[in-house]
Amino acid sequence: VIATHDIRLGIDMGGTKTEAVVLRRLSSAPFEELARVRRPTEAQRGYEHVLEGTATLIEEAARAAGLAELPLIGVGMPGNVTEDGLSKNSNATCLNGRPFRADLRARLGRPIAFANDANCFALAETVLGAARGARVAFGAILGTGVGGGVVIADRGVPKIWDGLQGVAGEWGHIVLEPETGPLCYCTRRGCVERFLCGPAIEAAYAAKTGEKRPLMEIASRQESDPAAREVIDRALEVFGRALAAVIGVLDPDVVVLGGGVSNLDVFYTKGVEAVRRWVFSDTLRTRIVKHQMGDSAGVFGAALLP
Ligand SMILES: [Zn+2]
User: What is the pTM of this model?
Assistant: First the structure.
């Protein structure tokens, strides 16, 4: 049996699966992974099912790590909470309008730290990954949606800055083309996300050519296919404009890119050039780098919350 001192448990609630990791802080290395377990989220089976499934997974992870009691717990999940602590903007829609945070704390009888998944990504990359050592880091997710999180080192310890409304870092819904841009689920038109997420790039290519191709294939056709090049160039231009706006406000030391679209190498060459064209500065010293934690960023970031 291992004492729970210096041990933390992270939960990453995704659209399809929920993952748990148990980490022990070591003096020799940042962390040792004691256990990792996962289960399907099954949001379609309703609120009580997700609540009980999450609680059970936490208990199962602690047991798998050989812990006699529950350690410090952090949970990363999509969306946010209202002033009254009710979940909102979650793509697991059965959580919306429900006091998931309070209910999970009550079910397990202990405090639990929560953050949204983009903030967990930014925290994990700042503590353990591509933005290590940054005083201020911006974690930008370009995946099926576009999100982001801000991490600021407080006396050397990186902390999430989520802001008054909890929307700090949410650059995906900065509006670039309010009159003519594509309609967004947030009710506005022309949000950054509508140009920059994977599905938006694929849709732009399909609209231009009448052919449906996956993102990576479009990216690989840039040399041979003018439509592919145009679509990618358009995304890079939006990326440059939007990220320059973020840099204008936050001026972070490092921007870490995550999500499927961030695997396109062109974001680190022509993408950075586009940011340089739009940023309010003669030089761009901001490091714009690829994620290092891969799919584990969410669950590690959650474990770093408490
Ligand atoms: Zn929007």
Answer: 0.94
